[in-house]
Each structure stands twice: as C-alpha cells, then as structure tokens.
C-alpha cells in the first residue's frame, strides 16, 4: 500500500523509455518528485523531474543519493544494471526497487538460460542449440538447414541477433561474433535457432513474484529500414494494439502465460518487475484446434524501448500504484485502465545508426498537434541548447481511433522536428493498418 504522503521516485536510465516513465509518473498526484539518473534533454524539462549526474552503473553513488534524498521507489530502466545486480545492491541497503534481481534477470542476459527455462516449463519456442565456439557453430550451421538465426548469448544492446536467409549469411554472422569479437565477452557463446515464419508481437506483463498482469500487446520494428530490411537495431518504432493478438489470445494465455505464472508461483525465478515476452505467432495447422501457434523468441527483464513510449500514452490510470504493488507482492489489488485509442510511435535516429551515433548536432522542435507526445532518447542540453547525443535521438507517439490514423498523425508531427542527418522509417504500423482493412 502506498504511504499516506507524496513519494519520491528515482528512475535509473537516460533513454526514451526512461523519459516516458518520468512523463507518466509525473502525472500521479501521489508523486512529489522524480529524479532521473542520468536522464536526457527531455527528462530535464519534464514536470517534477530533476536530472542527476550519476551513471546507471555507479551503484554506490545511486544508493548514496537514494538514501540521502530518502527515495521511496527506484525504477530501473536499462538491461546492463539489472544484469550487474543493481536491484540486489539497492535492496541490500533497504531501498524499495521495481525490477528483478540479477539472478531473475538472467532470463534476459543469457539467451541459453532462457531457452533452458522454456524447455523446463513447457513454454513453446523455436528449435535451438547452444554453441561455445566458432567451430561448433560453423558445424551446426553447415549441417542443418533450420539453423539460420544466430543470437549472442549475452547482452548486446538489442543488436546481437542475426536473422539469416542462407548458410553463407549464418556463417558470416558466426564469424562476426567469434572472430571479429564485435560483442566482446557477450559473444563467447551463441544460441542458434530455427528461423520461424509468422508475425512478431511484444507482450509486457507486470509481475509481483506470483502473478502476471499483461499490458496491451505492441509490435516493435527492429530492422533499420523500411520493409524490415537491414540490420537489427534497438527499435525503430512500435504500435499498439496488435490486431493478430485478439485472434490468438487464448493460445498465448494457455501456452505461454499459464506456464510462466506457474513457474513464478514455484519461485523459479523469484521475479518482481516487468517481464517482456517477445513472441512469434506462426500459422497453425487449419485442421488442428488452434489456427495460430505462439512461440517465445526472447525475454527481456525490463520495459521495452520503444514499446514503453507506445504503451504509456495509452495508460489511463496512475502508473505508480501498480509499480508499488509489484514490489509488495500485491498485484491482485492493482487496477490498470487503458484508453481505447490506438498508438503509433516513430523513432528518429542518426542516419548512420546503428553503426554510429550523432553528437553535438542542434535539434529543433516546433509545435506538436494534440494527442502527440515527444520523448527524448539520445539528447542532451549543452550551453542551454538541445543537441543530439546518441543513435536513437527522439520518438513521437500519436494517439488516434485507429493505428492508421495514429501513424498519419505521428508522421505529420515528425515534420516539426529536425536535426542534421535525421532519418526514420516510413512504414511503422503500416502492416497492422493494412490487415485491419
């Protein structure tokens, strides 16, 4: 239960997801102040929010600041501090944290561990094998036509997945991981999977250690260029809801969510926070009981980015009580209401992204139409001026009665934003809009 006084919150992180969290929590009458460490150019001007010059991996400094300022709740945004044990570090000092422990977040920071977890609990996923060397991976790729998805076992900023169309492409991906050492120690081991055909969707769920409370579905666009071409990125845009979800909801609930919740009740893992479930919905056998077969592609131990920017503008109710309930194991009493409106989030990036970022370029932002929210990611304020400071720079999220209309509104709003080398995909949400007609 929330205290009977306004609370102080610290958000650890500095991207678009963290700006969206600050923006939404600032709307809560129960929130007195928000600190974002380190924050960005957008969080610097968000209501109730103050940026703190502390990096997400500076655990002792974060803990010291929270104790000094009497922070009531810490929300951890990115994956690296979760994998390194920030939640454990803060909880050991008596702080309340929304986010999983290092061991629980292993569902994200080890793809091999996640696969073993799914196999153990009967959660459908693609056929796979774990390889600990380049020679082992090359042998698997050359000997099996199904082995066409190469995943770095560790964290890789959303860029450690290679979806290949041929043996040659898969072999090149293996070489880039093991020989070129692009991902460092994260690439000491790979998971090689069968390439599934279908439609992807992201399903996030609040978790209090025993129960799951799913959020509306999203669809992320990982590939850099229109038509899902080019390298994987951290995410070029997202929309919500996803039309196919309603047609396969029963299958997802019975085959994915039910065994997940059963595992939680057994304490395997002891998980509190938000769990991101990346799904591939494959067409099933028309003669079978299910027309669609969901398979879990991956887990993330945090809010997705840019899914958070697409989801939170749709959240009608207060975010703070549900985050608090997760930390207390009291999700049964949480109330979460969503707007009927659809949302579309488009991410503007440096034209060289994901290969390189943009720094120090001026950003101009004009007036935005109603029902459009702009979230900052790779931005900073220098000498009073807003500048680029990353690969993904900003995103705009628009609300409208349909996904098609939300997309049109988001793209119109982007015309009021500019920086040198600005680029973005032109087809975010188009697939869903087409399927709705």
Helix/strand layout:
Layout: E1 7-13, H1 16-25, E2 31-38, E3 49-51, H2 59-69, E4 73-76, H3 79-84, H4 86-91, E5 97-98, H5 106-109, H6 111-120, E6 128-131, H7 134-143, E7 147-152, E8 161-163, H8 167-178, E9 190-194, E10 199-208, E11 212-214, E12 219-220, E13 223-225, E14 229-232, E15 237-240, H9 243-265, E16 272-283, E17 292-300, H10 307-311, H11 320-328, E18 342-350, E19 358-362, E20 364-365, E21 372-376, E22 379-382, E23 385-390, E24 392-400, H12 403-414, E25 417-418, E26 422-423, H13 430-436
Parallel strand pairs: 1-2, 1-4, 2-3, 4-5
Antiparallel strand pairs: 6-9, 7-8, 7-9, 10-11, 10-16, 12-15, 13-14, 15-18, 16-17, 18-24, 18-26, 19-23, 20-25, 21-24, 22-23
Helix pairs in contact: 7-8
How would you briefly describe this protein structure?
The protein is α+β, with helices and mostly antiparallel strands.
Notes on the structure:
With 437 residues, the chain is an alpha+beta fold. It has four domains: 7-99, Rossmann fold, CATH 3.40.50.20; 127-194, ATP-grasp fold, A domain (Dna Ligase, domain 1, 2-Layer Sandwich), CATH 3.30.1490; 197-333, ATP-grasp fold, B domain (D-amino Acid Aminotransferase, Chain A, domain 1, 2-Layer Sandwich); 342-436, Phosphoribosylglycinamide synthetase, C-terminal domain (Glycinamide Ribonucleotide Synthetase, Chain A, domain 4), CATH 3.90.600. 29% of the residues lie in helices and 30% in strands. The protein has helices at 16-25, 59-69, 79-84, 86-91, 106-109, 111-120, 134-143, 167-178, 243-265, 307-311, 320-328, 403-414, 430-436; strands at 7-13, 31-38, 49-51, 73-76, 97-98, 128-131, 147-152, 161-163, 190-194, 199-208, 212-214, 219-220, 223-225, 229-232, 237-240, 272-283, 292-300, 342-350, 358-362, 364-365, 372-376, 379-382, 385-390, 392-400, 417-418, 422-423. Strands 12, 15, 18, 21, 24 and 26 form a six-stranded antiparallel β-sheet that branches. Helix 7 packs antiparallel against helix 8 (167-178).
């Amino acid at each position: 239960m929330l205290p009977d006084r306004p609370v102080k919150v610290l958000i650890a992180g500095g991207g678009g997801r963290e700006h969206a969290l600050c923006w939404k929590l600032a709307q809560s009458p129960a929130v007195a102040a928000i600190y974002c460490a380190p924050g960005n150019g957008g969080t610097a001007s968000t209501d109730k929010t103050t940026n703190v010059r502390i990096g997400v991996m500076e655990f002792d400094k974060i803990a010291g600041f929270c104790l000094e300022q009497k922070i009531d709740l810490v929300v951890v945004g990115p994956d690296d501090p979760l994998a390194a044990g920030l939640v454990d570090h803060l909880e050991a000092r008596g702080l309340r944290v929304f986010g999983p422990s290092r061991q629980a977040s292993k569902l994200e920071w080890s793809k091999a561990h996640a696969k073993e977890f799914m196999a153990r609990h009967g959660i459908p996923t693609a056929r796979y094998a774990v390889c600990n060397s380049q020679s082992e991976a090359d042998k698997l790729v050359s000997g099996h036509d199904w082995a066409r998805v190469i995943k770095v076992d560790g964290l890789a900023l959303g860029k450690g997945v290679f979806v290949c169309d041929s043996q040659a492409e898969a072999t090149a991906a293996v070489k880039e991981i093991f020989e070129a050492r692009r991902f460092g120690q994260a690439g000491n081991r790979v998971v090689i999977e069968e390439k599934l055909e279908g439609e992807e969707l992201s399903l996030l769920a609040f978790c209090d250690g025993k129960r799951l409370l799913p959020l509306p579905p999203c669809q992320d666009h990982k590939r850099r260029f229109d038509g899902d071409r080019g390298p994987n990125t951290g995410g070029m845009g997202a929309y919500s809801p996803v039309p196919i979800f309603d047609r396969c909801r029963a299958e997802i609930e019975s085959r994915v969510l039910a065994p997940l919740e059963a595992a939680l009740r057994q304490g395997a893992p002891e998980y509190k926070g938000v769990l991101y479930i990346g799904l591939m919905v494959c067409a099933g056998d028309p003669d079978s009981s299910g027309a669609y077969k969901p398979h879990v592609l991956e887990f993330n131990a945090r809010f997705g980015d840019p899914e958070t920017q697409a989801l939170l503008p749709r959240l009608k109710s207060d975010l703070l009580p549900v985050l608090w309930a997760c930390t207390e194991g009291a999700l049964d009493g949480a109330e979460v209401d969503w707007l009927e409106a659809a949302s579309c989030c488009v991410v503007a990036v440096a034209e060289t992204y994901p290969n390189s970022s943009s720094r120090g370029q001026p950003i101009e932002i004009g007036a935005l139409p109603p029902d459009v929210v702009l979230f900052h990611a790779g931005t900073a304020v220098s000498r009073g001026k807003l500048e680029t400071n990353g690969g993904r720079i900003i995103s705009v999220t628009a609300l409208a009665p349909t996904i098609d209309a939300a997309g049109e509104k988001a793209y119109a709003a982007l015309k009021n934003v500019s920086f040198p080398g600005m680029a973005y995909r032109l087809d975010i949400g188009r697939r869903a809009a087409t399927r709705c007609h």
